[in-house]
């Protein structure tokens, strides 16, 4: 029998109590510590909660406190809702909603975790608490209520759910809860709940206020130290860290145990600043033993033949960055020891003997770094290699001296927080005041723009009336943007009387203005321009808004490709943008590569403007314009695909399909004369073939290879739109690859990267759920990915030398050939029913591969015999 409630109180609660009786029993007499048990909770669920809609506020609040006092109340609420959900009775909706609302109010209290932990009576209850809140019990129930009855709550979204319980966890610390074993268990459970959103909890702990708690929690989580450190690394990867914050963050990170697994996972994140922080955190006054051990382990794998042949070149470059930075901090004795180890020499030898230029260059780079530290001079004195190493080191940026860091070690860890700005998003947000300050810095040395008047559509009709009406304000004159500072100002115009004209003029004249600007000014304003353009909304329904904006973006990228591409890729990765805006960023890269290569696209007529003094007299100029190459009439991808699907596919259909089978090909899929894009003119950028790989292509493939899920590279995971983004991303890679033929210095490595993207996806198409040919679940997603894959494969087959492909990519071609044959044998109806054009592309790929293997059959047999 409960101590605070007598027999009479129990009888009252069981027999339809009045409000006064409930107030007397539950508020006046109730003893929380002794009365709240399963018997009371069950009684309240059956006799009182049904009346909660009519209860006064004080009794409602008391019910919330009772059910949130310990796990008994919460578990009973969850089980009650589950019982009603299992009945699937629409008439039960009001009952479910009543209990659901009570549950939401119970878990919504900021001190819920504090009360529950205070009332734990055994370690088993702590385990049960973790199961309820950070397992699947509560969160799954909330989502089930939404799916079945549309009972929506903010906690149905993982990010909000984690944020709520993170705040409750902070309340525990604010109330000086001192059981660090229990705190550590809860903290680790929050981290394990969701791999993507949970690391955000560190935004509260990398502060002067809560960092000491984090250290105590870490010290009491011996079995989960690596997990905590890994999530901390992920958090640091998600925020923006300036160069002057590298050492302070390294001081913070050195309080956590780092091993080779964590080092390797950090390398895969492709975050150079974070990699510097990690390496510096491992330095000490002596030999930096941990860093040296990690270096030895990584370089052994880095030089293995299987690593060289199977690992994407973008990832190999990330590993090389770690090696180069580490070598910079090793002392003379350590570098000499490295140079004498057989594994190091074998690694360099394996790379130098590779057929890939980039693989060889990375091998010579590491060799030069080690021997330059020992002897003061490089081993490989080759002009091309010198240029490669110079570019590589420039991309690394500033490397801090070891002594600077060691001096900083004397600083207490709590003092470093004054030198960092915690919690910043990784994307640098461009505010209006930042732009105005940038513009003002050059305003004194740039003359004022020419003024023009931009009339309103109905200005002629209303001019006389408006002159007579003093209540109507006249629009002020606006300027044609003649300088980049004007362009930035116009693009960020606030919603005033002239913002429409300013936006329209900026978009109309922007591309020409950007292309005629000198590289120094463009580089100064480029990041601001790209930020403004990609974030610009068509608030005024400007005609051809998307085309005009895209032309300006491509102008920025073509005007300064070496800097602009990195800005665009950074925004794609970390900018707070919609799916559509990210697709625009990808399109900007592909169109910029095509324009720089010399292709002319009808949807992007972008020419560098000539000043009148550089033109012929008008009558002569018109005569020469007759010989201008005509523009395409079809979209780029469609035109390329029509050219890649050969007429011979129909002629050889019997050979392709086998006797007795009929290949149906729409006439629309046949190659049409004059449907090809016009042959490119000479490259518009002198060194395009040198930079197309390093600036346009490899940064994108590097992004793809970091998208690893359960050990597989399956593309982006953005919910229902994953296939759209992944497909567009792969096609962008294909379009850029097309511009690299035939003379890019990296073409061999670029083809290899393309195969490394396409081949793993063959295991995903129509296989993600062990589909049978009749199962159409997720069909559209698979068709989108398949379309982009065949596009890339056709690009490679159509532009590469056949013997070159056989010599270097025999295994990849064989995998694709067998996969396509199996795909078309089992899923031809599914593919043709979804997209007849894609059906033709698949057969075109298979035919090209069959033709290629038959043509070089003797060569292949000879290789097998060897």
UniProtKB/TrEMBL annotation:
Taxonomic superkingdom: Eukaryota
Biased composition (Acidic residues): 456-470
Lineage: Eukaryota, Fungi, Dikarya, Ascomycota, Saccharomycotina
Record protein name field: Telomere length regulation protein conserved domain-containing protein
GO biological process: 'de novo' cotranslational protein folding
Any one GO cellular component localisation term in the record: cytosol
Region (Disordered): 450-472
One of the Pfam families matching this protein, by short name: Telomere_reg-2
PANTHER family xrefs: TELOMERE LENGTH REGULATION PROTEIN TEL2 FAMILY MEMBER (PTHR15830), TELOMERE LENGTH REGULATION PROTEIN TEL2 HOMOLOG (PTHR15830:SF10)
One annotated GO molecular function: Hsp90 protein binding
Similarity comment: Belongs to the TEL2 family.
Domain Telomere length regulation protein conserved: 481-593
Species assigned in the record: Pachysolen tannophilus NRRL Y-2460
